[in-house]
Write a structure and sequence with these properties.
Structural class: mainly beta
Strand content: 25-35%
Order of helices and strands: EEE
Distance between the termini: 9 Å
Number of domains: 1
Largest sheet: 3 strands, antiparallel
Strand order of the largest sheet: 1-2-3
Shape: globular
Bound molecules: zinc ion
Length: 80
């Protein structure tokens, strides 16, 4: 499982497990160390890119760092 956030300083990492199909929520795996892992249901990030065709963010509400639509062409995911 790879953290979905772009490179970040925090020690808490998040990997998307599954889009629940329920509107606006998804199941995430959250971990700090390899032995400290939680399953959490989080609401989707409501922030969309500016502009008429604003792309939605694929992360959860309140995440750290950049929204997914802010990533440059070279994707910089956190590899921890
Ligand atoms: Zn991370
Ligand atoms: Zn976002």
């Amino acid at each position: 499982m790879q953290c979905q956030l772009s490179a970040h300083d925090g020690r808490e990492h998040f990997g998307l497990l599954n889009d629940l199909g329920e509107y606006g929520t998804a199941l995430w795996l959250r971990w700090r160390e390899k032995t400290d892992v939680d399953l959490v249901v989080l609401p989707d990030c409501p922030v969309v890119a500016p502009g008429p065709d604003g792309e939605g963010c694929c992360l959860f509400a309140g995440h750290l760092e950049q929204h997914t639509w802010e990533h440059n062409l070279e994707e910089v995911s956190c590899l921890s």
